[in-house]
Structures are given as structure tokens and as C-alpha cells.
Amino acid sequence: MAIYGIADLHLDSAGDKPMDIFGHNWINHQEKIFSNWQNIIGEEDLVLVAGDISWALKLSEAYIDLKKIDELPGKKIFIRGNHDYWWGTKAKLKELGLKTIDFIHNDSFLYQSIAICGTRGWASHDSGEFDPHDEKIFERELRRLEASISSVRDNTLEKIVMLHYPPFNFENKAPNEFVELMLKYNISKCVYGHLHGEGHKFAVEGYIEGIEFHCISCDFIDFMPKKIWGNLR
Fold first, then answer.
1. Would the pTM count as exceeding 0.70?
2. Domain range summary for the chain, segments of one domain joined by +
3. InterPro entries, from UniProt (predicted)?
């Protein structure tokens, strides 16, 4: 049993959103993802899918893409990305009847003795896309992450956080408030996505203040789910 991570699948059953604007490596990216997934993921493994899952706008449209993932090997945990406009309430998501997918929303998931927490996150204050309206969203996402982590029972071995946005400042790549919150709750690992093409230069990985960080954007990991934790029993 092992834990893997991947983000930014950007599935598009309608064929309206080609991703090769970020590079030729995105051509036939869905086929690459599914082939790699089937080759390395076992039925007992857990896959953390950190947002931007489907380009669909409505939940009924996203179901086509979600069903494809549901039929792949392994148990999957989803968080929302900035392009997952189809994402609904937890009740609506459960009504889809997906057998191998769980959605994190102000809560957590226990795998063996490992707790999986998460939220979407948001752009850093010093990014060019941040404006005064974003402050409320940023603070709300911090509260959602704290609610997720706080839902974990005390008898877990370790805690992993999933974010969609990188938890680092834009200019100097320094840890931002999301990392401060993770330190407060003794998080051991964090995975995140969102970065594509030229954006890879903003990726931060490795151990920082005792937390192990992984960027798992599809094109950053060559469309191959990345092992985050191995040989769990």
C-alpha cells in the first residue's frame, strides 16, 4: 500500500480546452495520465488529486470525467482547484455515487493511520493576481484548512495536507500563512499543484521547517503519479 499524488488533470470530455498552450507535452495528456496510472497504482493504494480535475462547468457534465477516474485503480481523495467550477456541496458530490472517490471539504480522510487534510488555498499576497477582494478568499481558505486539520483524531500517525495553490510567496518563494498553519498542527507532508509551463520555476520542494513539500502538477511530474509515501501496512 502506498500514497501517490497528482494534480491538474484538466480532463475535458467536451474537447473544448486543449492544454497544449502550455507545451507540446500536454498533447494527449489524458491518455498519458491514465496509462501511467494503470501501470503503477494498485487497488490498495491511495491517490491524492489536488484540484483542477475537470474543465466541466456543471456537476452533471463533470460526472463523465469523474467516472473515468472512479474506474481507475486505487482509492482517490479530491480537493477543489480554481478551475473546478462544477464542484458542489458535499451532499451533491456524494449523490454522484462514485465508489472510489472521496471529496475533502472542511473535513479529513483517514488512510491506515495517516490523516489526509486539505483545501484549495489561494494565490499569495504578492502575486500579480491578488487584489483586495482576494483577502476574504485567502482568509476563508485558511479557516477551511484549519477546520480540516482540526477534524483529525489524535491517534493518527501523521498528517498530510493537500492544497491546490502553492503555499509560498510569489517573489521570494518563502513559506506563507498556509505553511504557518501547517507548522502549528505538526503536518509532515504537503502536496500542491497549479503550476504549469513557465510557472514551474516557482515550484518549491523538499524539507522546509520540517515539512516535506511536493509539487504534483501533471506536467511537472511528467503525467506520472508521484509516490508520496510507500509501503504502508
1. yes
2. 3-229
3. Calcineurin-like_PHP, Metallo-depent_PP-like, Metallophosphoesterase_sf, Pesterase_CT488
In angstroms, the Cα distances linking 180 to 89, 102, 104, 113 are: 28, 27, 21, 24
For 18-58, write each residue's pLDDT tens digit. Answer: 676 777 888 889 999 999 999 999 999 999 999 999 999 99
Class in CATH terms, 3-229: alpha beta
Tell me the per-residue pLDDT of 126-162, one tens digit each, with 9 for 90 and over: 988 888 899 999 999 999 999 999 999 877 779 999 9
What 3-state DSSP class applies to 162? strand
Rounded to whole angstroms, the Cα distance separating 174 from 169 reads: 5
In terms of Cβ atoms closer than 10 Å to its own Cβ (0-12, 13-18, 19+), residue 191 is buried
Residue 146: CA count within 13 A, CB half-sphere = 11
Indicate the burial class of 195 (C-beta count within 10 angstroms; 0-12, 13-18, 19 or more): buried
As a whole number of angstroms, the distance between CA 223 and CA 117 comes to: 23
